User: Fold this.
Amino acid sequence: MRHSKRANIMACIGLLTGALALTSCSGPGGKPAEEAAPAAMSEEQRVERGRYLVLVMGCGDCHTPGTFAGAPDRSRWLAGSEYGWQGPWGTSYASNLTPDSTGLPGWTEEDFVRVLKSGTRKDGTKVLPPMPWPWFSNLTDEDAGAIGAYLTTLAPVPHVVPKRTAPGQKAPGAVIVFPPPQPWDMPAQQAQ
Ligand code: HEC
Assistant:
């Protein structure tokens, strides 16, 4: 149990390094080619595709309580977390993604697509690390839309996530603090 908790946190630190260093991320070969448009899917198939993508892209790691203790709570699926992630950006908390009034009420498929592809919220502010949107910006429009379609179908779960705080401000709750990077982990000056 202890080991798997640490392994999960380390996986997120890996994501964070990418999110901090780059405004968008792609693999060694550059951006993946857009796939040829698949045959039109029914709304039900799109939602199912979105559910599949949310599972394999690990959204539940940060957004579902219990995950870092090795047991994601399915009854509070994607209802946000009270772990604070602290670094040069201040402290951020993974949002409650459900349509409850304490989460993201009234968010449309397009609102989710905008965050995933550009890291820009509905109110125009940028999404902070460790949300790995720079990697998610590589999603095809079809897949980003499918994720958005699925997220609008989530069961509402009441949960107020702590508000993010600016650098140097006191942050509530349990906070994961990122130490300054080792030389190896410093961002390279190269553009990708
Ligand atoms: C490594 C942890 C992590 C992972 C993995 C992750 N997120 Fe996030 N996400 C966050 C954090 C932290 C925030 C809040 C950032 C902030 O305060 O600006 C966030 C914010 C968001 C927001 C913005 C909501 C708002 O409050 O405006 C959306 C939407 C979102 N995430 C969706 C997703 C989806 C969908 C996935 C999977 C495809 C995902 N996230 C994976 C950590 C994560």
Remarks:
- The chain has one domain: 2-21+43-179.
